[in-house]
TrEMBL record:
Residues 289-299 have a biased composition (Polar residues). This is Spore coat protein CotH. Residues 240-331, 565-662 are annotated as: Disordered. InterPro entries: Spore_coat_CotH_CotH2/3/7. Residues 270-288, 610-632 have a biased composition (Low complexity). Residues 310-324, 568-590 have a biased composition (Gly residues).
Length: 662
């Protein structure tokens, strides 16, 4: 009897233990992985979301007229039929913001901060929504496909969808909606105890220590020019030349080792203001397969340390020749002050102990020690980064447009800003983009100047993992059917909307320019996959030196003109001016919902410009049912159709939506 009772007690104890463990398992999962958020399905669950911005007409116009002040204004927004009251909205960007302000367009990118006026308010859990105006993208889909590739590899990246924007119920434009890389992003991807996040921004073009902060002699030295050589005179922002009209250096060649300008688009939104940004415009021309000329290949020395001088790109150029402040992620020394650019770009609240872990990881990386990085995340990042040839980034000489993630002393790179992907930045020509070498995936810098990439490429197992992700993108994503299915679905959504008065009246590009551009993008992605597979199997050289020595097997790109896909200067595609002329196309300053009253073009905020009230509106309800002007109805159905073989593409769940990450 006693034995039976003890057995029963033991059984009860075991059941209780199992119940406790089952209850705690979600907590354990949160500690090591992401936490599912409602906005993944409710907001980004369709490939085309609707966003109606409801503002007083005068406030809206004041915000547009004073866009350069980047001041938040109060508004209500209705997203996919649900209204969020009293949110903060402002124009966003750097050079892209200035370019729009200096043009005849009001088609700004926007940032919506849901808790700006109401503490704790979110959009189904999302704290910040970014609406990109697609100024540099005639295809409308460059960044969409980049984020789709990251999602395919299960890489932590912003959730994304196309968005149809209306203002007070009137059509405004087709944008790209992105999840802001902030607190809700970290929770969704890394759980309740995420690591630390930084957005280093070493801008050679602006900001302290940048190009705009240098006198003529310093700039001449940075550019590697002699005393008698003329500096390239850049036009004023309101007088930017069209494609093919850029001024050339005195000898008719490109400036030594550098493009004429730096990056175009926006930095990661980590605050209300960002450092001044500049942008490069380099378009690909028709060309026969040629070896890349502006990549260098030098294996990093294991014992190499940095001395605060970034050596890539001639004598430094716009991205080098000065202290990077750590933004190139090369180890300098043990002094935390040597990495001030990283700390200044903090997204999470960090302290010296957090900074010390980053420096220790960078030191390990410089010594070839993989324990300083999250190998899997870094390999996934490098695979997509290399596939899409995004050189306005750490892969080029600017050393910016990325997020640095640190957890338990290991570093990883997270994606941001791909508006100049697929050869939009200093690609040289179409062949250089299509055949960009996978084993020296940098431009205008040497591999020793990108230690965080070199540590992967110099380790046999890590390099094999990186190669496997490249192969997965080529064989499963592009050639396996998912790319074709997604492309067809998106064309079905956009073809009848882009550049139409009913859906996209502020478009930078015409319908014909969009059609030509998006078809070119499809060809570029397919040929890029072909070249990468050739590099992986050894039929095409996979390094810069190898391609320079033998270009006979490079994939032919002589029929491609990458400039039709858009450039840093925005509208007009490959030389056009949009539907009605002007650098920025058709985005005139018209106030939707205000009887079409035309307003004066104002490029910058006057000194005495009145600012909006920052007081919250009287109604502090977090969300209400949408009762104001409704945006046009868009089908939320998930894409239909099957790949050529009739099977669901690898990595894609049956009937899953193509615009969300898992």
């Amino acid at each position: 009897m006693i034995r039976r009772k003890s057995t029963e007690v033991l059984a009860i104890v075991l059941v209780l233990v199992m119940l406790v463990v089952s209850c705690l398992m979600p907590c354990f999962a949160e500690a090591v992985g992401g936490i599912e958020q409602q906005y993944e399905s409710t907001l980004f669950g369709t490939n085309l979301i609707t966003v109606d911005i409801q503002m007083d007409a005068d406030d809206w116009q004041d915000m547009l007229d004073n866009a350069l002040s980047e001041t938040y204004y109060a508004a209500d927004v209705t997203i996919n039929g649900q209204t969020f009251e009293n949110v903060g909205i402002r124009p966003k960007g750097n050079t892209s913001l200035t370019q729009v302000a200096s043009s005849d367009s009001d088609r700004y990118s926007f940032k919506i901060e849901f808790d700006h006026y109401q503490d704790g308010q979110t959009c189904w859990g999302l704290d910040k929504l970014v609406l990109n105006n697609l100024m540099s993208d005639a295809t409308y889909l460059k960044e969409y496909f980049v984020y789709d590739m990251f999602a395919f590899l299960d890489m932590p990246a912003s959730d994304y969808a196309m968005a149809e924007i209306t203002v007070n119920g009137e059509p405004w434009g087709i944008y790209l909606a992105l999840e802001g890389v902030e607190e809700s992003f970290l929770t969704r991807n890394f759980g309740a105890s995420p690591g630390e996040l930084y957005k280093p921004e070493n801008m050679g073009g602006g900001g302290p220590g940048g190009m705009m902060d240098k006198d003529e002699d310093e700039i001449r030295e940075m550019m590697g020019l002699g005393e008698d050589e003329e500096l390239l005179e850049m036009p004023e922002m309101g007088e930017m030349p069209q494609m093919g009209e850029m001024p050339e250096p005195p000898d008719g060649a490109q400036m030594p080792g550098q493009p004429p300008m730096a990056s175009t688009d926006d930095t990661q939104d980590t605050g209300d203001t960002q450092p001044t940004d500049t942008q490069n415009d380099q378009t690909a021309t028709d060309s026969q397969p040629t070896a890349p000329s502006d990549n260098t290949q030098t294996a990093p020395a294991d014992d190499q340390t940095r001395e605060g001088f970034q050596r890539g790109g001639g004598r430094g150029g716009m991205g080098g020749g000065m202290s990077s402040g750590g933004s190139d992620l090369n180890y300098i020394d043990d002094d935390l002050d040597s990495y001030e650019t990283i700390w200044e770009g903090e997204v999470t609240d960090t302290d010296d102990a957090d900074h010390q872990r980053v420096v220790e990881a960078l030191k390990k990386i410089s010594e070839g020690d993989l324990s300083g990085v999250d190998v899997d995340l870094l390999c996934k990042y490098m695979a997509v980064q290399t596939f899409v040839v995004n050189l306005d980034s750490l892969s080029g000489n600017m050393a910016h447009n990325y997020c640095l993630y640190e957890k338990d002393g290991q570093l990883a790179l997270l994606p941001w800003d791909y508006n100049l992907a697929f050869g939009g930045f200093m690609s040289g020509d179409a062949s250089n983009t299509i055949n960009f070498p996978i084993d020296t995936p940098v431009s205008s810098v040497s591999m020793e100047d990108r230690q965080i990439f070199a540590v992967i490429l110099n380790d046999e197992d890590a390099c094999a993992l990186y190669h496997s992700y490249l192969e997965k993108l080529c064989t499963e994503y592009v050639q396996g059917g998912q790319f074709e299915l997604t492309y067809t679905m998106l064309r079905g959504l956009l073809d009848s909307r882009v550049a139409t008065e009913e859906h996209d009246p502020t478009a930078f590009y015409t319908t014909d320019e969009y059609t030509e551009a998006v078809e070119m993008l499809k060809t570029v992605i397919e040929r890029r996959a072909e070249s990468i597979l050739g590099q992986l199997d050894g039929t095409i050289p996979s390094t810069t030196d190898g391609q320079q020595a033998d270009s006979s097997t490079l994939v032919d790109a002589s029929d491609l003109d990458l400039s039709v896909m858009g450039s840093q200067f925005g509208g007009g595609g490959h030389g056009g001016n949009g539907a009605e002329g002007g650098m920025m196309g058709r985005g005139g300053k018209m106030m939707p919902g205000a009887a079409g009253q035309q307003t004066e073009d104002t490029a910058a905020a006057p000194d005495d410009a009145s600012q909006p009230s920052t007081e919250a509106t009287t109604d502090t309800t977090q969300t209400t049912a949408a009762q104001s002007a409704q945006p046009p109805e868009v089908s939320g159905e998930k894409p239909s159709g099957t790949p050529p073989d009739g099977q669901t593409p690898p990595g894609m769940a049956s009937e899953s939506n193509l615009s969300t990450t898992s």
